[in-house]
Amino acid sequence: MGATPGLGLVVGGLSRPERAVVEAMTGAADLAALRELAAEVGLDRSAADCLTDLLLSAGAVVDGDRLGPAHPRRQPDRSSAALLTRAPDGGDAALATRAGSRVDVHGAGRVGAQIARLLAAAGVGTVAVLDAGPVRPADVSPGGHPPDAVGAPRRRSLGPLLQADAGHVATAGRRPSGPGLAVLAPTGGTGREEAAELVRQGIPHLFAQVVEVTGVVGPLVLPGRSSCLRCQDLHRTGRDPHWPLVLDQALRRPPPEPACDTALSAVVAGLAATQVLAHLDGFTPATVDGTMEVTLPSGLPRRRSWTRHPRCGCGWAAHDDEAAQWEM
Ligand SMILES: [Zn+2]
After folding, report:
1. Is the pLDDT of residue 97 over 70?
2. Domain boundaries, the chain
3. Ligand 1 center to residue 196 CA distance, Å?
4. What's the CA-to-centroid distance between 292 and ligand 1, angstroms?
5. Higher pLDDT among residues 197 and 25, named by residue
6. Cα 224 to middle of ligand 1, angstroms
7. Which residues surround ligand 1, an ion (CB under 5 A)?
8. 0.85 exceeded by the pTM?
């Protein structure tokens, strides 16, 4: 059972009749039918219950009676969540958590717009776009702003698209007042000021951007618990004292037509969305204390590790003992 790493499961020691019962667990037969089958092949009826319990506890099957209604478009996402969580609820709890979550997307250019739409389609109940700038021709992409939105405020351009991506499903229950996570996809500048503010507010945030021919996703900052963008800048400055100058130049003299390959922007958006969803689903994504970088033309992703910097101070409030250690 299972064909990919981490999901393979070998059920050994089954007799031929027991195997017949397991093979009948295709979703077409309920427990009563499985008990009938067990009796037909010469087993005790309770053998169907034993085998079902065994496979449920291993996360190899889901309990159809416990599955709630899901938007038909979201069925594959629910099945994916079920494989990740191995919960017998078939991924319902993970999707409910997403539906009750809010993600703020700061910057909705070519990259940010695609991230926002992916998150809405994946079931995040509230995706707030914090970008009142106008849609530029350069922002248009198949998964982001449509061509006829050029000139309109980015936020307004995405409003109806996000609703359509979400399948027009209203989030059940109270809408969250604050974001569970923010995505920083700057359309100008370096995003450092927004990142510092999010650290101050204690809001987890993910950085995603295309810089020249490299797509960068991360770090995903858990304020006080993992390294932040400033930690990364301090590490870079330690290796290259000119790094602050490079950042300053990027801020003051951006290229008139910044590079942002269409396909690379989609890769960055897809990777960023996986990181956000993993966080919302309760996992630790690869971009915590790290970045994922994809450079053209190879397109091969690599992960770089970034530890917290002793002089950053982003974790001092939460870990006074560690701060004291660092000061030594
Ligand atoms: Zn830091």
Report:
1. yes
2. 1-7+15-61, 100-327
3. 9
4. 18
5. 197
6. 8
7. 228, 230-231, 312, 314
8. yes
